[in-house]
């Protein structure tokens, strides 16, 4: 087991301080001296030796990876699959690197939806002002005009975005396993219009404005001596907090705040919004849903809120490892009855494909996915 350089240097000092603090008042001077020594150590420099800067490429080429003809992510020079533990014993850095690559892949999949699948990117809310936060969905040219059938795809929770089922599968397996592209292409080949939801794009992040700290001496009528003591305590507290923060997070990241997208602040809100403004307005006689994981919960919530409309327009729903719960979501009897007749939930199971799997809930049939779907 390896130990970081900063830990090796700081551990004896922390131990000494702990031992001294167990002594009597005469040991206070030694404690003060050790604290002074710690305050002089440049933790930023120490930690930089442990953890490289959190500065990653913004392109696949920059990461030296590319998707081959089989849709597999491979290193440009070695041909090897993606390696998570790029630097040993630096899990946080490796995780940040993985997340940075994931963001690039999200944009790459968006490009594939437009270029390979010929989908249109539609901004929402439809009446958004220039300055307000926005999200988007993807639709085929005939999504609203196809008079016969429409396919709607909803992914699960987490980091995935429109066009993805599972980021992990995209990175470690291939594009066909982890994206919705095979579903989209087959649906379009069979004459369906297509709408791809984006239920996890609920907000934008902006840097949190810094609020200036007002000194207590500027706004207090207390005696000068008392104000000085309070200011001294405040400065010492801040110094200790900053000292800890430097050790815990030497590469301090920007503080961000979330600005939620109107009427699309959650997957459930998003599903209802897209239904009201697009799916319900479509010309399709028959609408079909494919919803994975939390997408199944979002569909059930849509069903509860728009029961009559959904029943009149939706023909069938294919759920995959859906996490919906008709009791927790308080789905009524008529909703549960409709789901038993019109929904099927393919779940992870070692049983052969389409083998019936026992369910604890009185909603829709559950059958084995035969290992095809993974959260």
From TrEMBL:
Residues 1-18 form the signal peptide. GO terms for cellular component: nucleus. Residues 207-247 are annotated as: Disordered. Residues 56-353 form the Arb2 domain. GO terms for molecular function: siRNA binding. GO terms for biological process: regulatory ncRNA-mediated heterochromatin formation. It holds the Pfam family Arb2. Keywords: Signal. It comes from the Eukaryota. Residues 223-236 have a biased composition (Basic and acidic residues). InterPro entries: AB_hydrolase_fold (IPR029058), Arb2 (IPR048263), Arb2_dom (IPR053858). This is Cotranscriptional regulator ARB2A isoform X3.
């Amino acid at each position: 087991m390896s130990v970081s350089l900063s830990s090796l240097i700081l551990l004896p000092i922390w131990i000494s301080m702990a031992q001294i603090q167990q002594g009597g008042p005469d040991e206070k001077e030694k404690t003060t001296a050790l604290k002074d020594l710690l305050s002089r150590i440049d933790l930023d420099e120490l930690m930089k030796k442990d953890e490289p800067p959190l500065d990653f490429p913004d392109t696949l080429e920059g990461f030296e990876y590319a998707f081959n003809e089989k849709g597999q992510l491979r290193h440009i020079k070695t041909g090897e699959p993606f390696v998570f533990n790029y630097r040993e014993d630096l899990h946080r850095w490796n995780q940040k690197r993985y997340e940075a690559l994931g963001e690039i892949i999200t944009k790459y999949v968006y490009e594939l939806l437009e270029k390979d699948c010929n989908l249109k990117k539609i901004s929402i809310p439809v009446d958004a002002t220039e300055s307000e936060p926005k999200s988007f969905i993807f639709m085929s040219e005939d999504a609203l005009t196809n008079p016969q059938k429409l396919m709607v795809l909803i992914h699960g929770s987490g980091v995935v975005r429109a066009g993805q089922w599972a980021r992990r599968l995209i990175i470690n397996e291939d594009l066909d396993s982890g994206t919705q592209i095979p579903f989209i292409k087959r649906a379009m080949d069979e004459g369906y219009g297509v709408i791809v939801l984006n239920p996890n794009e609920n907000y934008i992040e902006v840097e949190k404005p810094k609020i200036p700290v007002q000194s207590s001496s500027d706004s207090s009528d207390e005696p000068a001596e008392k104000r000085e003591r309070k200011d001294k305590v405040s400065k010492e507290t801040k110094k200790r907090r900053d000292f800890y923060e430097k050790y815990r997070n030497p590469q301090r990241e920007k503080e961000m705040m979330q600005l939620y997208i109107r009427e699309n602040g959650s997957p459930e809100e998003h599903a209802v919004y897209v239904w009201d403004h697009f799916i319900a307005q479509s010309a399709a006689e028959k609408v079909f849903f494919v919803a994975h994981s939390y997408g199944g919960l979002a569909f059930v919530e849509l069903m509860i809120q728009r029961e009559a409309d959904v029943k009149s327009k939706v023909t069938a729903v294919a759920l995959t490892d859906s996490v919906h719960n008709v009791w927790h979501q308080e789905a009524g009897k008529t909703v549960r009855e409709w789901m038993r007749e019109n929904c099927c939930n393919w779940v992870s199971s070692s049983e052969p494909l389409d083998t019936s799997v026992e369910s604890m809930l009185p909603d829709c049939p559950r059958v084995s996915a035969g290992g095809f779907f993974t959260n």
